[in-house]
Records
---
Amino acid sequence: MTTAAEAPRPSRRPRSGMDANPVLRWLRANLFSSIPSSIITLLLLALFVKMIASFAQWGTWDAVWTVPGNDTSACRAARGIGACWAVIPEKYRFILFGTYPYDQQWRPALATLLFIALFYVSCLRRFWRRELVLIWAVMLSLIGLLMWGGVPGLPFVSQERWGGLPVTLILATFGLAFGFPLGILVALGRGSKLPAIRSLCVLYVELIRGVPLISLLFMASVMFPLFMPDGVNIDKLLRAQIAVVLYAGAYLAEVVRGGLQAVPRGQHEAADALGLSYWQKHRLIILPQAIRHVIPPLVNTFIAFFKDTSLVLIIGIFDLLTTAKTAIIDPAWQAFSVEVYIFVAVIYFAFCFAMSRYSRHLEAQGRRGT
Amino acid sequence: MRFSLQNEQFRGLLWQIAVVAIAVAVVAWLWSNAVHNLSVRRISTGFAFLGREAGMPIVDTWLAYTPKDTYLRAFMVGIVNTLRIAVIGIVLATIVGTLVGIARLSSNWLLSRLAAIYVEVLRDIPPLLQLLFWYVLMQGLPLARTAWTPIDGVFISNRGLIVPSIPLDGGQLWVIGSAVLGFVLFYMLRRRLIALQIHDGRPCRSWPYGLLLVIAAPALLSWLLGVTWTVTLPELRGFNFVGGWTFAPEYFALLIALVTYTSAFIAEIVRSGIQAVPRGQWDAAVALGLRRSFVLKQIVLPQALRVIIPPMTSQYLNLTKNSSLAVAIGYQDIVSIANTTLNQTGQAIESIALIMAVFLTISLGISLFMNWYNAHIALVER
């Protein structure tokens, strides 16, 4: 097997003519450097071309792009041969925004844009300061106002009607916004000298990390009502949100703990020598350094949450994946779930890929020491 | 100790008392609410319900089970189902992930680009979505009547994969057990022989012993015990297959989704592990005139393992926890069975406590094993 770009390649004798052409030289160096390598290249090429060709044929030439009304007979005829992309224009409003009142759907659309703007601003280095917390608070309340409404001009829409992409974004973002302070507190508690507080924090983190998110969500949906006094009824979305926050808190606590451990002891000692209190010391000296250390893993954790919010499907909350699954319950379109799943996968991929690119960019910057 | 707020020890004590008091108060409040609510709903707490008849059908099982069995038995079936997806998933994900990780570092441009695409695409799509996708594809397989038969006795249809079975009773199990034992003995012997070779430099072939222990001895035992090995071919009767071993489509969809998703992460871990091995190790090995595959296997990977094992452990734990996604497609793992139990009996606290206990035990088991392995391969320094 040809492995490891790291391995030094044996130097080749210069051959005039062949090596003069940069394209040929590149091909020879990267695709046909040895006989096994050439065999792998040809095999992969054959396989890849065949797969791409059949996928392209299914996805474009043989696909059905539009159908008149709800009449899917053209799609049915092409079943197994070509994709039925007609399902997307028919259902995309439902997939993206769920059962939100149709004429009001500009509101979740705007909320989604606000979320994206919020993420974008948070990624810019010059906004990494205390005011960012304020920006988050303002933006999240604005999004809440937009989704709920209840002020003149914006009729009230209850959470039961929310759905699709905004719900996914809400679960992930609010999970982070509330899980992060919780995580910081727990991380501090875990590193504390006080045994009772430390063991409580360890218990919390290990219990949550030891079980699947699904069991926490089940807990939120079936056990939570049991734990509440009579007459107190908390909305299903909020219950799921609480489960996501608790889950996020445990994982973020571990990330922050890593950052805390990376802060040199001298910083603690210097802060103590200045006579700062415990909270002053952490707020002003330790945490700003610790969090800067762990921004790339924080982004990775956020990507994980973003994907994990899809699990709320199992307790019947209308996030992006659930609306997609519901959209194809419609008998006329039932057979075309693959197309819908691909559509949703592209949306998830776009968000996660952008974030993972950003995280890699940060890591590269960190290595350069900027 | 001075009882003043200026005293650090005293303040620490106050903090601890306050936090513990709040925690105890919250738990007590939740508990009293739960006790009240349960008594209103006439649900008795405790694990007595485990002895009652479950009455839930379980389709895909390795343990003998009928709906007349108890809840306890149903839970056992669920645990076995979780373990069989987790263990096989971990093994396959490790193999696929390692290959993809190595491919990503290949000097062949096409291979490394394709591996990178594999990693990027699979990592950035939620596992549940991937699972649903594979499950839909499985349902698109031909019906049982028109099943696809690559070789005689093997059927691939929307009922899953059906292969010929070999009935396993006492005798056969003894023979298989002796083969496993032979393998363990062979492994230990081989290590001993290698140690001897390192000691006195004389090469000693180990494979004849392997042949003897793993193949010949069990065969002899089989002949002595007079064990018969019959193969039952599955056949289509009516709408379903009779005989043979069935692997349900749910199981396969879950296995494929977990393996592809986790292998993308494992590939990245393997890649960074290999890159963490200093370049001088490659150079030195190549200077000795060793082949590249040999260098990778004998020199680089053992060193990379030290970097790879700790993050790999958390991927194994993730795979095990993600196996609970099974509930979305109706593969009956422990979470799915506990959920059905919960709906049938209303024993919410007990069911969820059982899920947690099972997963904490599995997680602890994996962690312990990986820590042991990590200590085993750790660099022994002076």
---
Amino acid sequence: MRVRPYLTVFRMRFALMLQYRAAALAGFGTQCWWGFIKVMVFAAFFRGTLTRQPMNLAQAITYVWLGQAFLVLLPWAADPEIAEMVRTGNVAYDRLRPLDTYFFWYVRAMAWMVARAVPRCAMMFAFAAILMPIVGLGDWRLRMPSNLEASALFAGAIAGVVLLSSALVMLVNLACVITLSERGANALIVPLVLALSGSIVPLPFFPNWMQPFLFVQPFAGLVDIPYRIYFGGLSGWVAIAGLAQMFGWTIVLVFGGHRAMTAAMNRLQVQGG
Amino acid sequence: MNALGLYRRYVGASLRAQMQYPGSFLMISIGQFVATFVEFVGIWALFRRFGQIRGWSFAEIALFYGTINVSFALADAISRGFDVFGTEFVRTGNFDRLLLRPRATTLQLLGYELRLNRVGRLMQGVLVLGIATHLLGIEWDVRKLALIVAAVAGSVVLFVGILILQATLAFWTIESLEIANTLTYGGVEAAQYPLDIYSRWFRNFLIFVVPIGCVSYFPILRLLGHRGPWQAPGWLLDGAPLCGVLFLLMSLCVWRIGVRHYTSTGT
């Protein structure tokens, strides 16, 4: 497989995304505000508790800020341009390229995510890890990884999030291709991501009997597993198992998605004229 | 035709348009119901672990949560025109057309669309209110009904006021800015819990600057028989939802200033 065309797609899409700077700033303000509310709710819950919790307050707060920093790495929606292409029939152009359509779109999804995540993530770390202690909100800051091992594992996990999330976006894109509209697919993916990734409430807070299921399902790899690796909640072999889970699901989803895409493309009727 | 009759016409047209795609309406509504209900399940999970939050029980939180979600669903459904004002009206120059018609611009924007699929969040809020009623054993007499209706009405007009301010901002920025979400979605997020759990600066902001606390927190305190951290007199808590109306009136004044400032982008 030639790699160069895919690299070019990535670079072009990345450059395009960086132009939406004002939108990124407005989004950043919203996320800081959002993070503050969640942190204050956790602080209030922890204040009165005497029982042992699955993570302490500092870890829960770090979880919240990481969630804000990496928010755009989640598979929230189909690529809007792909839905548009399918509706107008322009998808025929992408079919004519001497490239594998699945990987062409997969790389587009990756670039879109990474380009949006890099500036937001940098700003969120600057705000929550550096600025907050300076202005006297040190208790509510984003803490650094617990040790070198955690940092190294987390770096691997974030790369895994991008690969896994892109594979999930491709499933949503596939649903667009089949139903000719992004609406239904988007309406389905958002509640799944919200419920199962840990972005609403960290998964360890759910009842103990749910934990085995929550750990093995694919959405855990988007939020819960990487963030718990970050603050040392998952370490050693359990962390390795978490990473293996993420990469395992990615391979399954890419393989299955690729096959389903080939089948869908063979049946595809190009719209318009 | 009077304003109300005209609004009814607008609504009728909007509903017929949305019902052209019943499948899409149904899917988005159900998706919204699930996506918002998941948040409530998260709160349930936290209460299973912690038992209480600063002395408040799960059932009491459900009452705060349900009220603000019902209110926001209604406000979000009726004020779509203001929500998309920057992108759909200012940037395109379409606002010129509204100005040419001999009717209030605010009425025309209210009539832009009545978003039916917000019924997903609405049903979720109603369901949570039902859960709260059951758990707390609330018997809805006239006084309690009046309190909750006042809370919902006050919150709806407050949210509409915030969205009008967001739209007004577009006269200067041309685009709709996401930053107003901090007050709408962020306000909902914050008001799902009683405000006394938050830091003082944040609580004061939500009472004195953007009075979300006045329209939902105060009347529900009263409904639950609490007096809050300030031991406020009852009549003050009863009358607090009127702050929403004041906020809306202020927004409308700012809107008029914005309209006077407007210069068409032209095409």
